[in-house]
């Protein structure tokens, strides 16, 4: 009864945010992050477009079959989609699944055709099929296109440089929280490639329960583009005992970590990932960007521009912005020293900080903090900072 009451209350709050004028996107972000996420696919159809600033009154026409002619990606997309049987609900009739697979191919080719700067990668279809199953082909086409030119853009570069760079955030996050696990993984020389499929499919490829996948998508759509790597870090940290009991060699540790458990405590891990993002934002984990031109091309560094497109322009927003501007002036004076010291500070400081702030904040507090902080911590990248 208590669960049902909480659910009803949350549904009411979501619809209140949707019906406000202007739509309260900040409240929708909090709802998507906090316990249970957006609850139903019916609600996701309404909220996901708002989180991505997609106008549902002006959707593109459905792509035609002519996209398949002379398309350099068609054969690879076809192979990947044919292999995607397990991403469809068990028991779905073959003809219905085959129809959805055809739609999946068309959506992918449509986005690539309209955005020639984007390059297809294996695993992209795992993200697209999630949107197709939740919102249908026409809306999925618009949402995936926006997502591909923002959150996923680094994975769609001609090379994997930016993807590797994002993976390089994994070990510093683990090191801040649990140096013992970090040092063990370093000794095993396991690297971060075990988390590649997690990152580039937003865990869609590795989780068997669709409910868990869409819950994570609620979370990631509402947050900074680097949040999936924080979530990857909390999965490793959650498995601390298994990791430390493993043989300390690359093959053993890689095998262990690449087999992702299906019974993870998702709500707890989402809360911890949000908390770690607030405690150790990307800007504190990265050195000053040495290659400014490269930095400007990463999706994470342009998140502020994307986020501002959907923020509500209310009087209190303007006042808060002025207050933040004042604080930034003071912060800038201290910022340089903090940046220099953050990667070399004694490890004891980390434990003091964790003890003071608490490793896991309440879900509501984590949600609010992540929403507020995402604007402030759009990072600048340097490609080779964590060799």
UniProtKB/TrEMBL annotation:
<dbReference type="GO" id="GO:0016050">
    <property type="term" value="P:vesicle organization"/>
</dbReference>
<keyword id="KW-0343">GTPase activation</keyword>
<dbReference type="Pfam" id="PF00566">
    <property type="entry name" value="RabGAP-TBC"/>
</dbReference>
<dbReference type="InterPro" id="IPR035969">
    <property type="entry name" value="Rab-GAP_TBC_sf"/>
</dbReference>
<keyword id="KW-1133">Transmembrane helix</keyword>
<dbReference type="GO" id="GO:0005789">
    <property type="term" value="C:endoplasmic reticulum membrane"/>
</dbReference>
<feature type="transmembrane region" description="Helical">
    <location>
        <begin position="219"/>
        <end position="237"/>
    </location>
</feature>
<feature type="transmembrane region" description="Helical">
    <location>
        <begin position="351"/>
        <end position="371"/>
    </location>
</feature>
<dbReference type="GO" id="GO:0007030">
    <property type="term" value="P:Golgi organization"/>
</dbReference>
<feature type="domain" description="Rab-GAP TBC">
    <location>
        <begin position="38"/>
        <end position="224"/>
    </location>
</feature>
<dbReference type="InterPro" id="IPR045913">
    <property type="entry name" value="TBC20/Gyp8-like"/>
</dbReference>
<feature type="transmembrane region" description="Helical">
    <location>
        <begin position="190"/>
        <end position="207"/>
    </location>
</feature>
<dbReference type="GO" id="GO:0006888">
    <property type="term" value="P:endoplasmic reticulum to Golgi vesicle-mediated transport"/>
</dbReference>
<protein>
    <recommendedName>
        <fullName>TBC1 domain family member 20</fullName>
    </recommendedName>
</protein>
<keyword id="KW-0812">Transmembrane</keyword>
<dbReference type="GO" id="GO:0005096">
    <property type="term" value="F:GTPase activator activity"/>
</dbReference>
<keyword id="KW-0472">Membrane</keyword>
<dbReference type="InterPro" id="IPR000195">
    <property type="entry name" value="Rab-GAP-TBC_dom"/>
</dbReference>
